[in-house]
Target: Ig-like domain-containing protein
Amino acid sequence: MVDWQKALLMMLLALLIYPNDIFGGAFQPEFSGPITNLTVPLGRDATFTCLVKHLGGYRVGWVKADTKAIQAIHDHVITHNQRVSVSHSDHSIWNLHIKGVQKEDGGLYMCQINTDPMKSQTGMLSIVVPPDFDPEATSSDMMVGEGGQVKLTCRARGVPEPRVSWRREDGKPIIIREPFAGSVPNQKSHAVPQSEFLGEELKLTKISRNEMGVYLCIASNGVPPAVSKRIYINVHFPPVIQVPNQLVGAPLGTDVVLECFVEASPMSINYWVKDPKGAMIISSMRHDVQTVTKSPFEVRMILTIRNLQKNDVGTYRCAAKNSLGEVESSIRLYEISGPAKTQTPVLTVFYDEEDEAVFGSAEMDKTENKPLAVDNTVHGHMGYPSLATPSSTIRIGKKRPINVSSGTDPYPRRLFVLVSPLLSLLIVRRGW
Ligand SMILES: *[C@@H]1O[C@H](CO)[C@@H](O)[C@H](O)[C@H]1NC(C)=O
Ligand SMILES: *[C@@H]1O[C@H](CO)[C@@H](O)[C@H](O)[C@H]1NC(C)=O
Model:
């Protein structure tokens, strides 16, 4: 073997034994970028990427920093965790894959190069969990007497800790009245309405019928999806009847509408009777009995008496009954004289709060689209509103005056108006 051949052999041997000292020596392996931290929802896949340059003959390994468990060396998976795998391309991009991450997979992961001393960098795997309610500690629908109190609870789990808030499904404000019974006594009570309430417990005190309805508790922690739960609060109270007109006068031969407004929860059974017999009035040729539901606890009772006759005159009573009580209110229907044939149309007008539909006699239909010839001086004498309630609480209705079609004067709602040119004079004379 000649010298040059010996030299070449030595060179090849040296290359095999100390490859990096000869060629890579000037280019020690190094990381070409940091490891990106990962935030992964429970059950999803995670991939860490370690960027390396000048790896030469060195190897890349993955270690879970907290347990020191070796995950993989080069392209061999070491851990027994079946969900872990590795991949690489060009000896410069080294990936650690974790399928379907579990809570225990969370933590610091280290990418190492087996230089001396060892080089490493770390990346954090954070496992997040979307919110969920703890069914054991979350309220279901509630029933409470008016004036009572309820405590609604929604406990949510998740990572990070979910934020729980409350809203009413109908968008009405939540009214927090302090104090809740059992908390600091003698504290001055004051109500705070708010569209959203924060916290796992919602305490409602001195609850009123207007607070009846669906309450939503919503849990969110930034990890979709947020969850919500509907809780229905049913507020119970005995029936209350409100009568817009206790005195109604009409000429014979006309159609007359009597009405009562009932609030009750649970919903009451509602009916009309006429004194003195007290028989329940049902729909017939002469009578039309209607009930219009305004809300889960409000109904309008409408009795139409067609073609008023002498024996129709008298006292009518509307009655409402539920499991908590029973109440009735009366309306006196009297005859007013008047040349029924020749007079300008006698109107029995009712304005519906929601749809402005007009209920009334046949004569009404012809005037539907015209401005109404309403003499506002009349209705003040027509009767007076009344409230019938089994308790001593008097609740004034929240009905507000509205403008009549194209009319310019404010006009009381839910009022029967009977108009005839002679009427106001007549009534004033009678001293109503
Ligand atoms: C990763 O998270 C750790 C702490 O959890 C932080 O110190 C480090 O700077 C983060 N790295 C990057 C690249 O954001
Ligand atoms: C009645 O009409 C006037 C003028 O058109 C208006 O300013 C007012 O808001 C109306 N009121 C109601 C209760 O609709």
Remarks:
- Residues 402-403 surround 2-acetamido-2-deoxy-beta-D-glucopyranose (ligand 2) (CB under 6 Å).
